Amino acid sequence: MPRLGKNTLLSFWEHNGWCQGRDIVIIGAGFVGLSAALECRRRFPSASITIVELSPLCGGGSTKNAGFTCFGSPSELLDDWRVLGPEKTVELVAARYKGLKELRKNFSDEEIGYEATGAIEMFTQGDEKLEADVHEFVPVLNEALIGVFGGEPFSVGSEAPGVKGATSVITSPFEGILDTSKLYRSLLQRTLAAGVDIFNGCRIESIEADGDGYRLDFDYGYFEAKQVVIAANAFASDLLPELDVAPQPNRVLVTSEISHLEFRGSCHYDRGYVYLRRLGNRMLIGGGRQWGDGESDEVENKLIEFLKTHIAEDFEIEYNWIGHLGVGESRDPIVKTVKPGLHVGVRMGGMGVAIGSVIGRQLGGLPQL
Question: How far apart are the C-alpha atoms of 146 and 223, rounded to whole Å?
């Protein structure tokens, strides 16, 4: 029976039809959560599967990203090479690229708004040490990754169309851009068609063992589940404090339309901390956490200054939002069973578009019914 103080806003039908006796409850309706739900449905065709999502629009951090189909810029991969080692870095890139190829296999380019634009990483005055280190690293990186891509993924150049003030650029033909809303809606529609319930606007406050399963409390009710899957990425440590993952605020700006915009595709700067891409006749720029708190005016102003210096001067900011990356000591994702019936897949390291479906499938393979 419902415990006193809970379900006072839920009817008998709501409690018993949506909250009680669930086989699998997944926390987080982003790319990882939806992909995990689809894998669970494939494995357990008759199971009751519910996704719980805080956002009223679904998506979480997945609908606040910039729409990059990226696998890591050379300077970012140099950091990984130093921290994780060559073998793990290659493994990470391979997983990211596999995820991107699977996106285009599972959805048409039109369904997800994909454009095979290629990408660049740029360097500017003041970046001399990093620039030299990366230029020296590129041949080593290319040799390590040639088996992943079937060709060298990076080449060093001196300039790129529509970019001002770059001392050098590194280009990659294997990246692109997509429409985040189209990708998310396509994945969401498949999840709903698979008979998965989604419970929006719900913050899980605690997870407690309860008999043979778990009880998940929220402010006006609770779920009962045999298996619990946590795919809340940046905020997973709110429920499991021992996880090495934390939310990193990340500012994203989109300009008004810009006349005679020459820039195409996407660009990375300073180990992936700054990224920009074209959106029609607008520019998107985000990140900047190396300059301070991602929520601060200082970071916002520096992003605007960077855009005016290197792309175009005449624009207004029309969209301005904060997303949260799931980051930790390493960019290596965490996918594991914490205890029997409780599983977690988090720490995308800002690569959720690329690796979300791969991690989601791995995560969806953990529950046992």
Answer: 48
Spatial CA neighbour of 65 closest among 345, 284, 312 = 284
Do 354 and 112 touch, CB atoms closer than 8 A? no
CATH number, position 48: 3.50.50.60
Domain presence at residue 54: yes
Query: How far is Cα of residue 259 from the mean position of the Cα atoms in its chain?
Result: 31
| pLDDT, tens digit (0-9, with 9 covering 90-100), for 112-150 | 999 999 999 999 999 999 999 999 999 999 999 999 999
Phi, psi for residue 315 in degrees, rounded to 5: -165, 165
Helix (H) or strand (E) holding 119, with range, is: strand 119-123
Whether pLDDT at 233 is above 80: yes
* Cβ neighbourhood burial of 44 (10 Å; 0-12, 13-18, 19+): middle
User: Mean per-residue pLDDT for 227-254?
Assistant: 92
Looking at the structure of the chain, the number of domains it has is 1
pTM: 0.91
Question: Would you say 222 and 351 are in contact if contact means Cβ atoms under 8 Å apart?
Answer: no
Phi, psi of 81 (to 5 degrees): -55, -40
Q: Is the dihedral of CA 332, 336, 339, 343 positive or negative?
A: positive
